[in-house]
Specification:
single chain; alpha/beta; TIM Barrel; eight-stranded parallel barrel; two-stranded antiparallel ribbon; 19% strand; globular
Length: 305
Amino acid sequence: MQNSRRQFIANASMALAGSALMPNSLFAASKSNLVLGIQLYSVRDDMKKDPLGTLKQLAAMGYKNVEHANYIDRKFYGYSAKEFVKLLNDLGMKMPSGHTVMGRNHWDESKKEFTDAWKYTIEDAAICGQKFVISPWLDETLRKTYDGLLAYMDVFNKSGELCKKSGMKFGYHNHNFEFSSVLNGEKVFDIMIKHTDPNLVAQQLDTGNMYGVGGRALDIVKAYPGRFELMHVKDEIASTVKGEMNDGYDSTVLGTGVVGVKAIIDEGKKSGGTTHFIIEQESYQDLTPLESVKRDLAIMKKWGY
């Protein structure tokens, strides 16, 4: 980017300060531009066994949008980009976003450019009609020090520039370490928000992942108005074992847990700038994955989404 990091931070700080004074109506999403979908990791075993059959079942439930979690060797669930988008089109479905971890193997520090593997990721995402290319993880080696994390936030912004050339936006999806890890007196999540350009890097807030370490999504949305274009809509219950995030909680059917999901997504729509609401459930208690996501969709529709 042309601006120095110091200039960018100053500009970003001014933007955040100014946004706190802006009316919520500036960020409010209308019903017409809302996207409701499912993260296919919710039905990962079904997708592994029978991707086409699983997608047909999801379409029959009423799902119109999916978010992938399987891109390997330039294939989505075993299909090339062109094959997969045709499959979705035939079912009346779209894939506005997808998850692929951007890691060390995707950035050549010596050349200061992305490797072919990441360039192909962007290319195939564009073929599938994605609007967002989301990295759902940040390797521990990239967040061990404050300066190291800042350096990789520059790579985030550069990925945003690369995605922009194809009409898309780069994004990041949180787990829980972002809220439990602190560098230079700041939570990792706050550092990431403050040092990424909102015009280039979208935030996909997972409403449940941070619950077990004390993160509260409603407070986070209010603290950073307009910053959460996407949400993973997820509820949580106390786990009898370690839990999905190793913090004592598992995801569950929406509205049956402790997160207070409806208030969070309503605030996202009102002030968070959220337009993409993606259902995700990773644990199912006494239900099957497909039964769970069917109930999740019914709840979201009952809530007006």
